[in-house]
Write a structure and sequence with these properties.
The chain has 93 residues and is α+β, with helices and mostly antiparallel strands. It has one domain. The protein contains 3 helices and 3 strands, in the order H-E-H-E-H-E. It has a 3-stranded mixed sheet, with helices on one face. Helix 2 links the parallel strand 1 and strand 2. The longest helix is centred in the C-terminal third of the chain and has 17 residues. The protein is globular and about 35 Å long. It starts with 6 loop residues before the first helix and ends with a strand.
Length: 93
């Protein structure tokens, strides 16, 4: 049986698509699970994310471990950048 995709796999897939298309940096918007993947991109490939917007991205999607991973990603993002706004959009100059 195949295991479900991890957030890291989704993030690497997003980067691979951008590499194939020659897109070095981009404004990233993610909806729901895409928002969690967008957070992963902002933490693990921050030099490739010009701005970040998440929408309908819940604190808990699926299992408790999944929710904890989301919270860890959000905390890491907060530590990694100093220009997060408190609104629905996070951007970096």
């Amino acid at each position: 049986m195949r295991r479900p995709y991890s957030i890291a796999q989704l993030g690497h897939d997003a980067l691979a698509i951008r590499d194939t298309e020659g897109i070095a940096t981009a404004h990233v918007c993610g909806l729901s699970l895409g928002g969690i993947t967008a957070l992963w991109l902002a933490v693990h490939a921050r030099e490739r994310v010009r701005s970040l917007t998440t929408a309908n991205t819940g604190a808990r999607v699926g299992s408790a471990e999944f929710a904890h991973a989301h919270c860890r990603a959000a905390r890491a993002l907060r530590r990694a950048t100093s220009s997060i706004s408190c609104g629905s959009t996070m951007s970096r100059a």
